Amino acid sequence: MICTISRVIRKIIPRFGRRKPLASEVLSCHLRQRQLPHWTSFCIYRQTVVNDHFGLSHFNWTVDGVNYHILRTGCFPFVKYHCTKRPHQDLVFDDTFFTWLKFMNLGLPTLAYGVASWMLIRISEDIITSKGVVRIYFLLKEDKGAVN
């Protein structure tokens, strides 16, 4: 699912994002590289990707037939993804609730989360995409070889 805003920007500015992978591609490549783990949580610098998940907070994402519930938030200077392997569900209410919650508190908690993450991140991993290598960051060390 690509956000309409990203599509409009790419039509207005044709070179926009041409050298950067989509955030959705990084997400899928990370899940495959980790061999479809039960869960994972990572941050990515927002300037390293085209944020095609802009405006989404809680949504389903399927990779190789496996569904994940994705909790996503912008936390400057990052975009944070928390992925949990779960059956497909209608997440429209959850997505709307989390989006309004971020809007109502003016994004201040997500800004604080981003600044705290920036200071606490010590672990990184390179993800291979069709547009090159993108580095993602973790707050906690994850087992790379876990297969569930």
Question: Can you describe what's shown?
Answer:
InterPro entries: DUF4528 (IPR029245). Pfam families: DUF4528. The chain is an alpha+beta fold. The protein has one domain (4-138). The chain is 31% helix and 30% strand. The chain has 4 helices and 6 strands. It has helices at 4-12, 23-33, 92-104, 108-120; strands spanning 39-45, 58-63, 66-75, 78-85, 123-129, 132-138. The strands form 2 sheets. Strands 1-4-3-2 form a 4-stranded antiparallel β-sheet. Strands 5-6 form a two-stranded antiparallel sheet. It is globular and about 35 Å long. The two termini are 26 Å apart. The model has no long low-confidence stretch (mean pLDDT 84).
Number of domains: 1
User: In one word, what is the shape?
Assistant: globular
Rg measurement, Å? 15 Å
| Major sheet summary line | 4 strands, antiparallel
Calculate the mean pLDDT score and round it.
84
Distance between the termini: 26 Å
Count of extended strands? 6
Helix/strand/pairing category = alpha+beta
Strand/helix succession: HHEEEEHHEE
Low-confidence stretches: none
Count of discrete alpha- or pi-helical segments spanning 4 or more residues: 4
InterPro entries: DUF4528
Pfam families: DUF4528
Brief account:
This protein has 148 residues and is α+β, with helices and mostly antiparallel strands. The protein contains four helices and six strands, in the order H-H-E-E-E-E-H-H-E-E. It has one domain.
Q: Layout of helices and strands, plus pairs?
A:
Elements (H helix, E strand, L loop, with lengths): L3 H9 L10 H11 L5 E7 L12 E6 L2 E10 L2 E8 L6 H13 L3 H13 L2 E7 L2 E7 L10
Antiparallel strand pairs: 1-4, 2-3, 3-4, 5-6
Pfam families: DUF4528
